[in-house]
Amino acid sequence: MILRMSTLFVRTLREDPADAEVPSHRLLVRAGYIRRAAPGIYTWLPLGLRVFGKVEAIVREEMDAIGAQEVRFPALLPREPYEATGRWTDYGDGIFRLQDRKGGDYLLGPTHEEMFTLLVKDLYSSYKDLPVWLYQIQTKYRDEARPRAGLIRGREFTMKDSYSFDTTDAGLEASYAAHRAAYHRIFDRFGFDYVVVQATSGAMGGSASEEFLARSEVGEDTYVRCTSCDYAANVEAVQVRPPSPVPFDDAPAAHVEDTPDTPTIQTLVDHSNAAYPRDDRPWTGADTLKNVLVVLKHADGTREPLAIGLPGDREVDQKRLEGMLEPTEVEPMDEAELARHPALVKGYIGPGVLGTESASGIRYLVDPRVVEGTRWITGADERGHHVYDLVAGRDFTPDGTIEAAEVRDGDPCPRCDGTLQTARGIEMGHVFQLGRKYAEALDLKVLDEHGKLVTVTMGSYGVGVSRAVPVIAEGNHDKLGLVWPREVAPADVHLVATGKDAAVFEAAAALAESLSAEGVEVLYDDRPKVSPGVKFKDAELIGVPTIVTVGRGLADGNVEVMDRRSGERTEVPVGDAAAYLVGVVRG
Ligand code: ATP
Ligand code: MG
Question: For residue 172, which of 442, 459, 443 has the smallest C-alpha distance?
Fold first, then answer.
C-alpha cells in the first residue's frame, strides 16, 4: 500500500488549535488525524482512520481469541428496554433522546446492556446454550457534561462492549477472568503504561468491578495504590477505614465560644489557638467539622438539599461525591437556596440545625471519620460563634455516612497498615460483574438441568476504542510531534523524496513500489515543489516510526533511514534499502 502525500487528504498545521488543552489533542489535530465537528464530536481523517482501524483490529483479535462473538446493534434504540431497567430516567441529561415522526421515544445508545440481554432472551432458553459471550464495536452517544481533551471524552465515541451470560456464579467468575485477561493483552499491545484498580459500579449496578487506567498526568481519574500491599483503587471506590469509637464519658460538655470573623477553617484554627489553646498540641483543621451544603438533582427531576460534614482539613471531592450518589447529580447550594433555610447561618453552620429531625430538616451525612465519641469544633449556628467539644453520638447524630472527602497522599490504606499514594490516569477499560440485575429487570431466565427456571447472571466489559487513539498519542509523542508504536502507526515507513532531481523521485518511487510489494505500508512524500524542511517537519509531526530520505545521498548510492523515536540515522545503499526496511518493519 502506498499513500502519496501529493494526493492524501491532509493539511498539517503549524499552530496549535485554540481549544486543545492536552498534547494528544493538539497533535492529532495539527498532524491531520482528526477535525472537530461539534463540541465532543470529531471527524476521522484518512490518517486518523488508519490508526483507529489498527486499534480496532487489536481489540477484535483479542476478543475473538477468547471466543467472544461479534454482533452489531443499532445505535438508535427504542425507549422501552431502558424504561424497564430505569435507565431512561436514571441517565438524566446524560443521554440523547429523540422522537420519530409518530411521537415514539428513542435514544442514542450510551451502552447496550438492555439490548444484549433482550437478544439472548429472544433466542436462548436453556442452560445448555450458556455460557455465551457477545460483543460489538460500535458508536456510543453520551451527552457528557464536560466533553474534554478531544477524543478522550467525546459525546460520540466508539466502545467495544461485551457481555457474558452464565447460569452460575462460578461461571460468571470465569467469564470475568477471561475478559480481564484479554484486556491485559489488548492494553499490552497498545503499549500502555496502565494499572488495574478497584472501581465503583456506577449506573450499571452490580458488584465486582475493576478499571484499567492508563497512567497519565492529563487523566481525569485519580487512583490510589498502597505502598505496602497490592491494594489499588479508583478514589471513587476508596472506603475509608473508620477509626474505633472513642469513649466520651469524661468528655467536657459542649460550650459555645465567641469566634468573631472566622468564616474559614484557617481563621477558625488561628483564632482557636490564640483564644482557646489546647494543652497537648495546637488545634488543626482536622479538629474542626466543616459542613458543606449541596443540592441533589435526582434523575426524576426533583431537588433535595443535602449537608455533608467532614473534617475541616479536607475538601469535598466532587467525583467521589457524585460517584456515591449516582445517578443523582450534585450542585453547590447557591445563595438563593441557602436563604430559603433560615436556620442556616452561612459560615457558622453546625450539626445543631442539620439532620432530618432538625430545624432545617436537611439530611445530614458525615465522613466515616466522624465516629461516635469524636470531639469537634464546629459552627454554633449563630454569626461569629462556634461550639467546642461537640461530641458525635452524644451531642449530635447524623443521618448516616458518606464517602465524599478527598483522598490524599499518605492516607492510611483501608486494607493494611501502609499508606496510600495518589496518581492520575485515564479509564481505558472497565470490567463488571453485573450479576442478575439486568436479567431480573428484563426477565432473562433459562431452564437448568433439573428443568427449573433460573435467572441468568451477567458481566459487562467495555474498552474505549476511540479513546485509545489519543491515549496512545499521550504516551507517545515528543516536542516535534507524534511517535506511534509500530503496531498502530498509520503506515510502516514514511518515505521522503527531497530536491528537484528526477533521479531522486524515480529511485524513491521504485523503493515505494518494492516495499509495497513486500506488504510494507508506505506513506510517500512525493510532493514536487515542497522544501525538504517542510517535508521533514511533516514527517516528524505525523510520527510514522521509520522515516526514509531519498535525496542528496543518492549521488553516492545511499538513502538515509531514521528511527523516529531515537532519532538514530543509518545510511543504507539504495539497492539494499527495501530488504533492510522489511527487516526493520518486521522487527
Ligand atoms: P468515565 O468514567 O471516563 O466517564 P465510564 O465509566 O462512564 O467512563 P464505561 O461506561 O465504563 O465508561 O464505558 C467503557 C469505556 O468506554 C470506558 O472505560 C472508556 O474507555 C470509554 N468511554 C466512556 N466514556 C467515554 C467518552 N465520553 N469518550 C470516549 N470514551 C469513553
Ligand atoms: Mg467505567
Answer: 459
Q: Which residue CA neighbors atom 24 of ligand 1 most closely?
A: 153
Residues 36 and 156 occupy one common structural domain: yes
Residue 413 forms part of a structural domain: no
User: Which residues span the domain enclosing 505?
Assistant: 491-586
- Same domain? For 446 and 512 the reply is no
Distance from Cα 232 to the centre of ligand 2, integer Å: 16
The DSSP letter of residue 352 is: G
Whole-angstrom Cα distance, residue 218 to residue 222? 10
Q: What is the CATH number of the domain that holds 543?
A: 3.40.50.800
Question: Could you tell me which of 414, 128, 381 has the C-alpha nearest to residue 243?
Answer: 414
Ligand 1 atom 2: residue of nearest CA: 427
Residue 203 binned pLDDT confidence (cut-offs 50, 70, 90): very low
User: Does residue 198 sit in the same domain as residue 92?
Assistant: yes
State the Cα–Cα distance between residues 189 and 212, nearest whole angstrom.
14
pLDDT at 201: 59
Looking at the predicted structure, is the pLDDT value of residue 47 above 80? yes
How do residues 336-382 score in pLDDT, each as one tens digit?
999 999 999 998 999 999 999 998 999 999 999 999 999 999 999 99
Whether 4 is in a domain gets the answer: no
- The verdict on 426 and 397 lying in the same domain is no
Say yes or no: 260 and 339 in one domain: yes
pLDDT of 149-201, one tens digit each? 999 999 999 999 999 999 999 999 999 999 999 999 999 999 999 999 999 85
Residues 78 and 177 in one domain: yes
**In this structure, are 288 and 363 located in the same domain?**
yes
Residue 571 has which C-alpha cell?
545510511
pLDDT surpasses 90 at 464 = yes
Q: Reply yes or no on whether the pLDDT at 204 is more than 70.
A: no
Nearest ligand 1 atom to alpha carbon 464: 20
- 312 within domain boundaries: yes
**CATH number for 396:** 3.90.960.10
Among the bound ligands, the one closest to the CA of 153: 1
Lining residues, ligand 1, CB within 6 Å? 111, 142, 144, 153-154, 157, 159, 202, 427-430, 462, 464, 466-467
* pLDDT of 326 above 90: no
Q: From ligand 1's centre to the CA of 330, what distance in Å?
A: 20
Number of structural domains in the chain: 3
332 CA → ligand 1 middle, Å: 25
User: Which position has the grid cell 505525523?
Assistant: 542
For residue 15, being part of any structural domain is answered with no
How much distance in Å is there from the Cα of 211 to the middle of ligand 2? 7
pLDDT at 205: 47
Atom of ligand 1 nearest to the CA of 426: 3
Q: How far apart are CA 484 and CA 491, in angstroms?
A: 10
* Nearest protein Cα to ligand 1, atom 1: 427
Closest protein CA for atom 3 of ligand 1: 427
> Helices 46-65 and 169-189 meet at what angle, rounded to 10?
140
Measure 45 CA to ligand 1 centroid, in angstroms. Answer: 23
**Same-domain pairing of 268 and 120:** no
Q: Residues with Cβ < 8 Å from 128, sequence gap 6 or more?
A: none
Element (H, E) at 255: strand 255-258
